[in-house]
Each structure stands twice: as C-alpha cells, then as structure tokens.
Write a structure and sequence with these properties.
Helix content: over 70%
Radius of gyration: 24 Å
Number of helices: 3
Structural class: mainly alpha
Shape: rod-shaped
Order of helices and strands: HHH
Length: about 80
C-alpha cells in the first residue's frame, strides 16, 4: 500500500512540475499583439490619408516601429503600387 501512495505522490509532483514548466501561450503572444496594435495605431495617426503614398508611408512606419520593439516585421519597404 505504501508503494501505491509513493507512486501517486510522485505522479502528482511530476504533473505539477510539468504544468508549471509549460509557458502560457496567450501571455507570450500578448506582448507581440500589443506592440503590433500600438504601432498600427501610431502609424494611422501620423499618416491618415489613404492614397497609395500614404498607405506606403503608414506601412513603412509600422514596420520600422515593430523592428524598433524587436518584434517580427516584413523585410524591405512597402511599395506605392496602386492596384
């Protein structure tokens, strides 16, 4: 009977240690989404016009802002093409 209790206790301890070792996926990505949202709002405030040039300037500012916050951003500059 003592072996059973020791085995159950070991499983409970292993489960609690394993659960705390797993990172919270929402907590990790929350900072990325927050920075992306902040950069997008700031870019829209600085470049409010929706011309091809304004769209490119807004996107370039957003990308530069993300890079400044060490977040993933597309490489290069946005194009001013009007489709």
């Amino acid at each position: 009977m003592n072996r059973l209790w020791i085995a159950v206790l070991a499983l409970v301890i292993a489960a609690s240690v394993g659960a705390s070792a797993v990172a919270d996926p929402l907590g990790a990505s929350e900072g990325v989404w927050s920075a992306a949202d902040k950069c997008a709002r700031e870019a829209a405030r600085l470049f409010p016009d929706y011309t091809p040039q304004g769209n490119a300037a807004r996107e370039n500012y957003r990308r530069a802002c993300l890079r400044a916050h060490n977040e993933p951003a597309p490489n290069g500059q946005a194009s001013t093409s009007s489709n």
